[in-house]
Amino acid sequence: MPESSGESGRRVLVTGAGRGIGRAIALAFAVPGARIVVAARTASEIASVAEEIEAAGARALPVRMDVTDLASVEHGMALALEFTGGAFDLVVNNAGAFTVVPFEEMSPATWYRLLAVNLNGPFHVSLLALEGLARGQRAHLVNVSSVAGRMPFEGSSAYCATKYGLRGLSDVLRLEWKERGIRVSTLYPGATDTTIFDDVPGEWDRSQMDRPEDVAAVVHAAHFAPDGVDVADLDVPEPRLTPDSRPTSD
Ligand SMILES: NC(=O)c1ccc[n+]([C@@H]2O[C@H](COP(=O)([O-])OP(=O)(O)OC[C@H]3O[C@@H](n4cnc5c(N)ncnc54)[C@H](OP(=O)(O)O)[C@@H]3O)[C@@H](O)[C@H]2O)c1
């Protein structure tokens, strides 16, 4: 298996990579020489993203993985590590679920589901990816939180609880894994135009949202930032210009 060297040899695992932000992150690292593991539950979506990655000249492995299920993560991680030669340079805990519901209407099933995807998922994946990360080159774990991991939004009790919690997990792993040379980032995207809004009640103006590629660019820049650059907390700099607000001439 190739040793990782520079941008081209990255060994990457992205969860929730079948669509949305995860797909964009996986594609951002798709350069010749890279090996990218595309993990999620929907086989057709991860196969399609893997094809896009291979078309860009990188190697890709679609892996069916339910991050809420430890056995599924164990199985998927074994396949992933075989594909990368036993090391990860970048692991992105991106798989996530969102809901908007007033707290008094929150069903236990919804609460448990969000904790399972947004917190148990990163726990399972981080635990099982650790040895691979420890063998990586300038290894990096990115946990995808949200602006809702830093400030409250009405109707987002479960989502905020999990995304604040993910920040806590990141902060502790950064301390504990420092000696192993593993960098740990928490990413705080704002509203981004993906399918995550499809089943959420309310009017969402997608034209005002960031694009998944905007978020992926932040992860890419942080991953390749020189030593000494603080990549602990990553914001997506500015909302995307909308057609109405975009300047037409200078
Ligand atoms: N979009 C936003 O506005 C926004 C803002 C801030 C933060 N975020 C965060 O960004 C991340 C990605 O969101 P997105 O907007 O790209 O969502 P999305 O379009 O709904 O995509 C979610 C991805 O996660 C996968 N996934 C869901 N449950 C999973 C599970 N149990 N096991 C494995 N994979 C699972 C989905 O695939 P399968 O269903 O096939 O498994 C899909 O590939 C989430 O953590 C989200 O909280 C999003």
Walk me through this protein's architecture.
- It is a single chain.
- Helix 2 links the parallel strand 2 (35-40) and strand 3.
- It contains six helices and seven strands.
- The protein is of the alpha/beta class and 250 residues long.
- The chain has a seven-stranded parallel beta sheet with strand order 3-2-1-4-5-6-7, with helices on both faces.
- It starts with 10 loop residues before the first strand and ends in a 15-residue tail after the last strand.
- The relative contact order is 0.14.
- The chain has helices spanning 20-28, 43-55, 70-84, 108-134, 157-176, 212-223, and strands at 11-15, 35-40, 59-64, 90-93, 140-144, 183-188, 233-235.
- Bound molecules: NADP nicotinamide-adenine-dinucleotide phosphate.
- The site of NADP nicotinamide-adenine-dinucleotide phosphate has 29 residues, from helix 1.
